[in-house]
Amino acid sequence: MIEKRQFYINGAWVNPVAVNDMDVIDPATEDVCAVISIGDQADTDAAVAAAKAAFPTWADTPLEERIALLRKLGEVYEDRRDDMAEAMRLEMGAPIDLSRNSQWGSGSWHLEGFLDALEGFEFEKVYKEVDRIRLEPIGVCGMITPWNWPMNQVFLKVIPALAVGCTMVLKPSEIAPLSSIVFAEIVDAAGFPAGVFNMVNGDGVGVGTQLSSHPDVDMISFTGSTRAGTAISKAAADTLKRVSLELGGKGANIIFADADEKAVKRGVIHCMQNTGQSCNAPTRMLVERSHYAKAIEQAKAAGDATQVGPTSDSGRHLGPVVSELQYNKIQGLIETGIKEGATLLTGGLGRPEGINKGYYVRPTIFADVTPDMTIYREEIFGPVLAITPFDSEKEAIDMANDTVYGLTNYIQTSNAERGVRVARAVRSGMVEVNGADAQCGSPFGGYGQSGNGREGGVWGIEEFCEIKAIAGCPW
């Protein structure tokens, strides 16, 4: 049993002010794998006070020194790769190969992107020969991160904030806190000054709300559900702090008849990655009607070939979803899809064959899904794909845009002009064409109820800065 009841505050591991234990559940076995403590107002206040006290000195630290510490953090992160991978496997059910590669690797990938962006980043520039425009650290930042890609989100927030001179309090997901505890150990080993980085475990109603409403917190950066993002925005409103939100999605994958032969299979695999627990997953497959029958066959074959297995086993199989709550939600939406008349191609209710324990979901694909169906409109956050036909390019664009979300859309076509045309027409913060991945340092974020602000690269650095215009000062 792992016992991690302490918080990291002001450069030291400290006990919570009051005892409030919480079990961490291994979703692969449904067993308790660790015990943490849930913080309260006194713990939050102590962490914020430490960050506030450390801010002036850290903000004045030369950029070269801050970058040197970030590079040291990267070295320690590399050394702790196996520890981090095991933590994520236990807490959120990522199979060990996925955890050790993609889940762990997302952190080092973003660090590389930020370090590249900092090389040419101008914190001060001349405007019209006489004015100076400065970018300065916004101050104390509250960071609330999710369970589905733990290090991806921690790095997207913590690294740029550290780079520009902000101090911070991190509140990771209470159901997947182990990786952030390891991360705090990494920050400590890298030698960052006391108070610059602090971590308090807690839930959204408690520590999350306390950070969002705290008068000494200058900014909240949150990744999670749209519902929680709304609550955080309301809690932050009284103090008028900056709120940066990366929220849900219901991405459309538009497959034209001239798409390459692997387009459908690629879309299924992408949808199912991380057991469907990705906000940018292409969960709506829109297929040109002349290609629809063939696409359904290809999708079913890809779904049937998708394996589910233990998180401790090597391989490209799917693991469980993160919790009993998430499992029950997904089961309810699969049942709704069946009741509303969608055609079940593969998967369905219950656990996969041969599995009787753990929050494992059958990889599920529906065809003949119409825009009025629940599974077409709601973010399921599980291994569930909805396929719908379309008749024209305009209809495909209209269908892709018929959502409250706007995170990532996908386009599959061999017609380059159409690819560009449709990419410009869909309303989303990101578009991927023909399986191309975004480049390291490219901005991540969305439109509408997918949130505001951008993470990654130059844009992620700017997110943690205030803009100061100086006029009339002799240079």
Automatic annotation (TrEMBL):
Domain of life: Bacteria
Occurrences of domain Aldehyde dehydrogenase (ranges): 13-470
GO molecular function, one term: oxidoreductase activity, acting on the aldehyde or oxo group of donors, NAD or NADP as acceptor
Record-linked InterPro entries: Ald_DH/histidinol_DH, Ald_DH_C, Ald_DH_N, Aldehyde_DH_dom
Segments traversing the membrane: none
Keywords: Oxidoreductase
Family recorded in the similarity comment: Belongs to the aldehyde dehydrogenase family.
Name of the featured protein: Aldehyde dehydrogenase (NAD+)
